[in-house]
Every structure is written in structure tokens, then in C-alpha cells.
Amino acid sequence: MLFNSFEYLLFLPTVFVLYWLLNDRYKVQNVLILVASYVFYGWWNWRLLYLITFSSFVAYAGGLLLDTGKGKRSESVRRTVCALTVILNMGILGVFKYYNFFAESLTALFPSLSEGGFIPLIHVILPVGISFYTLQSVAYVIDVYRGQVRATKDPVAFFSFISFFPQLVAGPIERAGNLLPQFLKPRRFDYDMAVDGCRRILWGLFKKVVIADNCAVYVNEVWSDYSAQGSTTLALAAVLFAFQIYGDFSGYSDIAIGSARLLGIRIMDNFRMPFLSRNMAELWRRWHISLNTWFRDYVYIPLGGSREGRWKHIRNIFIVFLLSGLWHGANWTFVAWGLFLALCFVPRVLLGKGKDARDFKDNRTLQDWGGTLMTFVLFVISFIFFRAPDIGSALQYIGHTLSFALPRLYYPGRMLTPTLCAILFMMVTEWLQRSRAHSLDFEGRCPAVVRLAVYYLLMAMIVLFSGQAQTFIYFQF
Predict the structure, then answer these.
(1) Which residue from 62, 219, 263, 380 lies 20 to 30 Å from 311 (Cα-Cα)?
(2) Helix axis angle, 26-42 to 49-68, nearest 10°
(3) Model pTM score
(4) 123 catalytic, yes or no?
């Protein structure tokens, strides 16, 4: 079920009304959330429900064994339980997402392995959201093992935590310490919170429907025959793809956050105006925050982070970005994408530049704006690998873009200019609202008539400039 579909337009209000009719009966509300989440997920393919059920059960049982065994079982036994639980969950992800990728890569390197079906391929579809809910399950088990959270004995609350429909199929990847306790206590309707949720949904729909879907039309047409395009067109398509993926993914996150708030539940922000960042380190603290903090807490820091010398610091950065690339997709283009981003971090490490201590809302110097522009250019280049079907195509695309052949700009239909205007509107709004909780957080800042004008303008743009409906990009991950 897509957030920008007619089905969701009926689904969310129905769940909202039924949910608050059960006010102060939070355990029954949890049952409703669990049923609604399984309906939401099963809308694509009900047969895939067994995977998320198995993943949830393994994490639930593993958490109980770790928590009840604390102080009773030896550390080696607890470590074994944790490892087996993690392996089972990551094994699901490995089989469905990566088996064929590694099998094909091995047979390409060693053709003799394919003779007689020594390494057979399996024909399975990639379940929607599997990369998200498996990481959420794994994080829960590790947190229980570390003693950072207590295992819950309430199976309905736990299964609702793993399958919570707003963030189920494309995040944010929630932590048990934040989301799970909200299912274990009463929730009362908060009008201001619900209204704020509606604002987030409106802003998310604007970014998805007006910006991402219209950018996709131009990007797809250019990529379908990029070798015949001039460098200006290729450069514009690369820039528009950056805004497409930002509008698509951050738009999804905004709708997820807003939908959760309608139910009185807070989930973490996943984007914080990343294109205003002054360097790559700052950008990646503001882009796909839930995934980046997951890798920080469960990979980067356990490897030693930046504490064990400069070269191990660089090694850890490469490991994290290569794993992040593989997480995004079973294709060597994503590995190359991760490698490129890791290389962008190396100069800062070698120069000993840590995190920028200045606040994001501080006034900018000319040097700051130059850093923002350079950061965006590097981001655009990296996502050429993200968009390309293979590494050769990505390198060819970059080569044609740098050829500086400047024929007439490809200008299809009538939507390019409105799309560029919508992007400008989004970026100006984000800059003006950079110190606020989100881009439509206008309360106490401007008169009601101005706020209403902005809301109606966004709704009009969604109706008038809706692009051809596109599936959310991150559904494939």
C-alpha cells in the first residue's frame, strides 16, 4: 500500500478513527495497530507476512532468553544466544537479498562453479521493507544483550513495534529505547500533535508527488538514452536525481512521522535538511539518520570508531560505507557508491578535521556556501552510481557529462519549469525554517493567514502538478 495511493487515503483515516475510539485502552489499541500493520504490509503480497512474523518471533524470543538469563547464564551462553538470534535475522536478509548476487559474482569469477549447477540461483522476490525490519529486530536483540533496554514480555506490543505500519517498509529504522516504551503505556489524543502530524504529511506529499515524481520523468527519459545527450542535459538530470531521491525518501519519512503522530506516537526524524550541509560529514549526519546511526552504533563504534588511530579510523569508515552500499542493493554499483563516499571522507580525516562545532542555524560565510556547493556536487556525482544499472554505465555517464559538449538543453513537455520552481520553493523554505523542528513548523512565527496560505498553496501544487505516480525508490531496498 503506497502512501500516495487512494487506498492509503482511506486506510489511515479508518485506522485513526477506530484507534481513538479505543482511547485509554492501549492494549486494545496495540492489537488494532498490529492488525492494521499486517493488512498494510500484506497488501502487496500476503504470503510475505510469514517472514516478518518469523523475524519478530526470533527477536522476541531471543530478547526474553537474554533478559531472563542475565545473571543466571554464563556470558558465553548469552553471547551465543545473541549471535544466533542476529544470524537468523540477518540470514533471512542474506538469502532473499544477496544470495543470487554473490552466486552470480562467484560464477562470473569462476565459470567452472556454474557447471552442473554447483551454485544454483534461486527465484525469489525481494520482500518489501526486509532491509528495514531486520535491522530493527537485530538492534533490539543487541540492545537487550548490552543491557541498554529490558526485553518486553508483551508479544502484541513487541510485534507492533517491529511491524508499525508508518515506518515498516522504508523506515525510519527505530530503536527499542524510543518506540517500544510508547506501546507499553496509555496514549491520549493530543490535538496539537495530530495537527503537526498533518503538516508533516502535507510536506511529505509535496516532496514526493510534486518534486520526486516530476524529477523522475526527466531523469528516466535522459537515462534511457544518455549516450545521445549533451553534458548540460546529463548534468541537469544528475542534479534532478539528487532532488528526486531526496524528495522521494524524505517525503516518505515525513509521511511516516506524520502518520505516527496522528496515532499519538513519536518516531525519529530521518532527514534534517541535508542539502544545506557544509561538508560530507555534516551531510551524512543529516541524511538517512536512522540507518547512519545504526551503522555507527552497531558497526563503527564496536570496530573502534576514531579512537584507535588515524588509519584504523579510515579503515572503519570504509567498512561502514561499503556495508551501507551493500545494504542499499545487491549490485556492484552500490559498492562503488559506498567506496566513493568513503573516499570523500578521507581528506577530512587526514587533515584532522572533526565535526564542525558550529550550529546549523549559524550565519554563513562565503567559504561556508562554497563548502555547501562542493558537498552537493560530490553528493550528485555519488548518486550517479546509485542510479546507474552498472559501473560501466555510471563511468560513461560521468565521462559524457565532463565532455563539455553543450547542445540545446533537453526540455520535455511543460513540467520542467514548475518542477525547478518547486525545488527552489522547497530549498528556500528549508533555509528559512532551518532552526525549526521541520519545514512547516510555523507556529508562533507568522500569522495564521500566512500559514493557511502556505498550506493551501501546497495542496494546490499537489493537485495541479502531480507527476506520473512512481513507487517509492527505497521500497526496492
Answers:
(1) 380
(2) 140
(3) 0.91
(4) no
